[in-house]
């Protein structure tokens, strides 16, 4: 009896010692981490509805992007009761916009939906690649080299000079005798009318359209002259 008890005690001690001496294995968090990542990936990030500068134009708060820039950088625009000075600030569902000079608070989602505006994400990398390709095609891979810079500068100056030349030159008009129903032409009278026609052209090129219309009415009433802006000709049309 004592011998059996002794044997059982020895076996229990040996088994306990074996279990305690097993190499320890750290608890693996791989499964938990994978589950957490899967849950995070299932939550889609909210998509922006519009940027702040565009929203101000959409809501008719300003007439241009320049005006939007001024009031935003002046700290006059609030998003969710916080001053916002970033023009490209993305606005989301539930955002509210207020401007100092307005009494009302603008609901971004309502305005975007009412105007039918659809936000398009700008791919800066794609735009950069497109510009680089265009430059490479034009200058044969001499991008940012000294030769490229000189050629670019020369082209810029030539374009500017050409633009200034065109701006200072009036487009010529001519008298069309075939479309005129007058039988006799006084050279002095023709010269006076041509001068008036060119005066009208100068007004048109300066975008002074009211003055140009006054000259057109004067030519029609005093000289029975009609003008054709498409072909830049004038002629008599006497009743």
UniProtKB/TrEMBL annotation:
Annotated organism of origin: Triparma verrucosa
One Pfam family hit: S4_2
Keyword list, A-Z: RNA-binding, Signal
Protein name: RNA-binding S4 domain-containing protein
Molecular function via GO: RNA binding
Organism superkingdom: Eukaryota
InterPro entries (UniProt xref): S4_RNA-bd_sf (IPR036986)
Signal peptide, first to last residue: 1-17
TM ranges: none
């Amino acid at each position: 009896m004592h011998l059996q008890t002794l044997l059982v005690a020895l076996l229990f001690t040996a088994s306990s010692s074996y279990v305690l001496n097993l190499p320890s294995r750290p608890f693996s968090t791989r499964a938990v981490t994978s589950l957490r990542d899967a849950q995070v990936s299932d939550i889609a990030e909210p998509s922006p509805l519009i940027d702040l500068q565009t929203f101000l134009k959409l809501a008719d708060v300003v007439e241009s992007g320049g005006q939007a820039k001024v009031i935003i950088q002046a700290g006059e625009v609030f998003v969710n009761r916080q001053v916002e000075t970033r023009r490209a600030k993305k606005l989301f569902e539930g955002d509210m916009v207020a401007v100092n000079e307005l009494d009302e608070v603008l609901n971004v989602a309502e305005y975007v939906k009412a105007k039918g505006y659809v936000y398009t994400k700008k791919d800066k990398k794609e735009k950069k690649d497109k510009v680089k390709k265009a430059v490479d095609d034009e200058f044969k891979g001499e991008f940012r080299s000294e030769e490229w810079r000189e050629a670019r500068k020369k082209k810029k100056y030539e374009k500017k000079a050409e633009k200034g030349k065109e701006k200072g030159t009036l487009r010529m008009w001519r008298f069309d005798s075939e479309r005129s129903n007058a039988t006799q032409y006084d050279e002095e009278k023709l010269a006076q009318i041509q001068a008036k026609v060119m005066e009208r052209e100068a007004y048109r090129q300066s975008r002074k359209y009211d003055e140009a219309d006054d000259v057109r009415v004067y030519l029609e009433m005093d000289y029975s002259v009609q003008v054709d802006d498409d072909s830049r000709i004038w002629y008599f049309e006497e009743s």
